[in-house]
Request: fold
Amino acid sequence: MLRNREIRFLLLVMGAISLTAILVAAFISPVSTLLVFILSLLLTGSSLLFTRWRYRELDKLSVYMGEISSGNDTLDVRDNQEGELSILKNNIYKVTLMLSEHRSLLQRDKVQLTDAISDISHQLKTPLTSMTMMADLLSDPNLSPAKRSEFTHHIRVQLERIDWLVSSLLKLSKIDAKTIPFKKDRIPVKSLIQKALEPVMIPMDIKGQTLSIVGDDNVSFIGDFNWTAEAVINILKNGVEHTPEGGAIAITFSENALFTEVIIADNGKGIPKEDLPYIFKRFYKGKNAAEGSIGIGLAMAHSIVASQNGVIDVTSDGETGTQFRIKFYKQVI
Amino acid sequence: MEILKIEHLSKIYGQGDSAVKALDDVSFSVRKGEFVAIIGPSGSGKSTLLHMLGGVDQPTGGKVWVEDTDMYALNETQLAIFRRRQIGLVYQFFNLIPVLTVEENMTLPLLLDQQKVDRKHLDSLVSTLDLQHRLNHLPNQLSGGQQQRVSIGRAVIGNPAIMLADEPTGNLDSKNSSEIVDLLKMLNKTYHQTLIVITHDERIALQADRIITIEDGRIAKDEVIRR
Reply:
């Protein structure tokens, strides 16, 4: 304790005051001198004792922080008392919790990466196996022209599938690694929706589905036009696919002080309750998934929205259909 | 991490013949950052459960662990300080101090702790709550929705471990209600604030990640609806 400069200074000041007081008392009487001497001793002593206690508490905190940095973050140093020392302990504990949370997030990311890699290899294996089989069958010199064209067509379909899969996965990985520069322009929601509708107008027409768009012209948000359009297209495609003929797709959008919201609703058969928590997961295919769908569209939409300070939500039931809610927040998330 | 753990919690009011079992062997845990909604009919024990979690009432049996601290093993003073620092409470009827300004009401937990208020943190919270122009007003000069936003600000300003809300929209019209729910949802996402809301309203419950249904003092259902 004495190595601390401030303690040495305190000792000096207390010593000087005590000495002065003793000298003054010496002029009064020997009894008062003794009194002042004993008093100074007691005061200085108790002051030093208390200071030593405080430094020991600080030392304990140092030891605690040492334990934290070597990975043992299960200790709790809080004591729920009034005062600065207790508040310090409280704040240190908060930082400890934050560190431990980061550590588990990193671990979770690692696990997710491993899972993603095994998902991808599984997805690629299926079309590759099929194509290998086709190649084997095509090597038969006595193949009929009809069979030959059937098999080559099959290979072509698989190749298209792999091509699309690889480019989607690349996009998704880049988004997740945050290496894509999303533009930050003010985007009028109306023009975004009109752009997103272009590729789905024909399938909607074929299925005789109706479309309604409700929202003010001045509703806008800050984001990247093209990427967000792609996200909306994926959701619209999902809606059109899972809504029967003659069904209806309703798009509404609005803005308030907290966020800008776009709701895409359909009156299809809905998404089963068990599937709802997982539909934005990569490669997740619900019970009603279309043949040949890989389950990336919604995952991509989710990543795109999440990278632009937004959230995407889904509610669904068998009677009212499915509603996708996209919210772009104005404050940073 | 498990920020809240409840083990065999029970609460009995009264004695002998007039004893009422408000909570009967309730156990569950909540992870950090989760948004949990607790729903159930009137008298099912929801408010009692919230009071146990908030440290404002003693359970008859069982334990409540918040951030690995056995809440009811602390003495009264320690519990009061623990509550001040780790738990944020939002009530149906706002419960703001009528003689303090909006800013003072919001920073009350910090003022009681005699901590210095971090201006930047306060400013960002105030603009999230859209109360920038009301800081010097008294609660009776504010609308219901604004008052509730002040109490939400008060509940989260100290970055508590858990935030508990007892029917936060019970006293508001539907437009204000949905704004408050959106606000809670955003706080849950921005500050990774663990949130436990008691509500009658299923629409609010559907915004949560997890819905726990209480009936007759017991957990009837515990459903995860969002990951």
Remarks:
- Chain B has one domain: 1-222.
- The beta strands of chain B are 2-13, 20-31, 35-39, 61-66, 69-70, 87-90, 162-166, 194-198, 210-215, 218-224.
